[in-house]
């Protein structure tokens, strides 16, 4: 990565009780010698409880790496990453697996549903695997919120792309995780289905108090969030509150210009 990264505008963010997740001085280095890549360079950020945060930045800026490190899917090289009060670097593999299962919901670009199970079975699968009984009232609320009540017996192949992603959203919400990480959740959807899925994510934050962190390239998708944080060259360089698509686009253009002239 370039050494000429822009000065971070966000102050070092210490862990505090109100954050669903937080990173402090988080660095991630891949490879060594000539293949060494600093994917994250001392990133400090908090993801507030009950808030919807979008992570944006150019290709290769470290968005997925940040998400993977925060979700315990990848190890960190320096600094700290916490989910709630739990410091991830202190956990062994089995504890990390349990943490991901019990505290984190995931939504990916590919819906990752099991084709032989119907919508309801897909939604409750992670809890079935964990041997946990779903809270029926909560499950009913989640299913109603994402508008799937009439589709629960359908298999993924009998659902549209947007409906399949809504099943994935419901699956992520079903266990009431501490935090949901979504990686380009609308990347495979047309704009109308994408808007629906983003609307449901937004509603899960507003109505159900869920915490959502979403990686996206799309300024319109980012505008559904309460806050956008921007990465460039592995550093957190800026953030926007209550973003409109125009604000986000404008900010991205400015970074582009800086990148070309520096
Ligand atoms: N497993 C890996 N081994 C080596 N380098 C990696 C690995 N994963 C990511 N990188 C490098 O780390 C940097 C950040 O990658 P990352 O995938 O986090 O970026 P991104 O912002 O999510 O990009 P995109 O928008 O293209 O998905 C890139 O330079 C990438 O090449």
From TrEMBL:
The keyword Cell membrane does not apply. One of its GO terms (molecular function) is transmembrane transporter activity. Pfam families: ABC_tran (PF00005). Coiled coil: none annotated. GO terms for cellular component: membrane protein complex; plasma membrane. InterPro entries: AAA+_ATPase, ABC_transporter-like_ATP-bd, ABC_transporter-like_CS, ABC_transpr_LolD-like, MacB-like_ATP-bd, P-loop_NTPase. Residues 24-258 form the ABC transporter domain. Keywords: ATP-binding, Nucleotide-binding, Transport. It comes from the Bacteria. This is ABC transporter ATP-binding protein. It comes from Streptomyces auratus AGR0001. The lineage of its organism: Bacteria, Bacillati, Actinomycetota, Actinomycetes, Kitasatosporales.
